[in-house]
Amino acid sequence: MTFHDPLALLLLLIMPIVFIIRKRRNQTAQLSFTDVQIMQGLPNTPRQQLAAMLPAARWLAIALAILALARPQLVVREKTITSRGIDMALALDISTSMLAIDRTAIAKGKPRLQIAKDVIKEFVSKRTSDRIGLVAFAARPYPVAPLTTDHQWLISAVEQLDTGAIEDGTAIGDALLAAVNRLRSSPAASRTILLITDGRNNSGAVAPAVAAQAAKALGIKVNAIGIGGKGGADFPVEDPFGGITYREVKADLDVPTLTDIARITNGRFFLADDADALRTIFKEIDRLEKQPIEEKVSNSAQELFAPFLLAAFTLLAAESLLGATWLRRMP
What we know:
Mean pLDDT: 82
Low-confidence stretches: none
CATH class of the largest domain: Alpha Beta
CATH topology of the largest domain: Rossmann fold
Structural class: alpha/beta
Order of helices and strands: EHHHEEEHEEHHEHEEEHEHEH
Largest sheet: 6 strands, mixed
């Protein structure tokens, strides 16, 4: 609460001075008694106690009137976002090759897909002003989530992704085009696709270069992220005698194609050979993909003087009425 005319509150400082002056004037006795013990024997009734409180009601009414004079106001702060952040689509490879475990100290024991999901969830949780959509792909793309600001739901959708839900393969071109379709009607000033894969295009009807040209025509930037260490990886396979065994596989990442996609769309290509590198890449993307949020802030004031003034008048009226009737004193 604030006051429109705070200088009026200085009148509150005068009240103690007036109170002291009046108290000194009223110290002269109104009646004289030859024997003070006569008065001491009189009972102190509730009526007398209420009568003694009437001056306090008057002083309180004056204080409330002064507060009303200062015009107390409740300031309501309104914030309107006039432009929003980036609209972004994630295209995540969930082909079986993403089950491979790269032979690095940091990534050991964790498949590529799980590493990618962990980093994506961390990334999404920080992009509070962005609408983010999700496309998963293997031999064909699968639209998982539309553009949304419900990031908790999106993080839950990312966590549920797994290989085997779509026939195996790597349709980079089709996946990229599906992500473009997610963004084509977006009114955002900046639109970006993050393409994450560990392979090369071997499925689908659309060539990656064609999909990249479509993104460029719509002003959509693609940041391509290749996953996979150069030192090979271990791929889990079922053992005929039970359990899981691992066989060595070589990296099959199509770096030239991913680089071309990024170049055509004015994006960047990143190579992540372990979990730490992938986190660093997403931090860099988080730094680069920023859009200023313009906010229009306005303040409105709700006047509160009426309740104070009403309370002051009520107290004065009650004090005058009771003082003239039931609590009337002798002259």
